[in-house]
Amino acid sequence: MQVFVVYCHPSKKSFTHDMKQEFLKGLSDANHKFVVSDLYEMNFHEEMSEEEYEREAYYSTEIPVADDVMEEQRKIQQSDAIVFIYPVFWTEAPAKLVGWFDRVWTSGFAYNPDPQMNILKKALFLVSAGKTLESLEETGESNAMRIVMLGDRIRNRALEKEMMIFDGTTHWDEAGRNERLAGHLINAYKAGVNF
Ligand SMILES: Cc1cc2nc3c(=O)[nH]c(=O)nc-3n(C[C@H](O)[C@H](O)[C@H](O)COP(=O)(O)O)c2cc1C
Fold it and tell me: Which superkingdom heads the taxonomic lineage of this protein's source (predicted)?
């Protein structure tokens, strides 16, 4: 498969970075092809301009889509699947990735009128979280994250959709963390191989 990976983490010194590397290694080993948009490295501009807002809220629908947004849309149209890799920030994605959706999911591409975006075979979210899965489930936060990403942002734009949460990444208990993260890295590699 041709896979488009949207990666968003501010630092290379992170579990999320290592997890992304393992996933990409898995994709390569399974002979999948991929392109990566590393949103921090490419300095993706996440803020909507006034003109972009006017276009997306249907005040001035003739305003053209910006070149950097078109480039991201082109990568989607040339792919069979999309993968988002990021850390949870306040039960959401980092602002840069939220802004990526604000700007890239344009009207005429991802939603009405006449959306041109190809339906993808698969959308996968690989999400790292400081909290434990138990805690995220107990509060309903993991469910909220799935509703927003899989339910709203992906909706029917992919045939298969899944969010994998790699939990317990905080540094409060280094020994436990190292053990957990070693298992997470293996699972990230497997997610790439079995994609
Ligand atoms: C601004 C900020 C907000 C965060 N919010 C959450 C949160 O709502 N839930 C959670 O489980 N972890 C949260 N975390 C923890 C991150 O998800 C954690 O740093 C992440 O899993 C990645 O670790 P890494 O930087 O080693 O990749 C937050 C971290 C930061 C910096």
Answer: Bacteria
pLDDT digits 0-9 by tens, 76-101: 999 999 999 999 999 999 999 999 99
Q: Read out DSSP for 28-52?
A: HHTT-EEEEEETTTTT---SPPHHH
Q: Report which protein residue has its CA nearest ligand 1's atom 30.
A: 89
- Residue ranges covered by each domain of the chain: 2-44+75-90+117-193
- What is the spatial distance between Cα 38 and Cα 61, in angstroms, rounded to a whole number? 29
Average pLDDT, the chain: 97
Ligand 1 pocket member 181 (CB < 6 A): no
Average pLDDT over residues 24-47: 98
- Region 103-130: mean pLDDT is 97
Domain 2-44+75-90+117-193 falls under CATH 3.40.50.360: yes
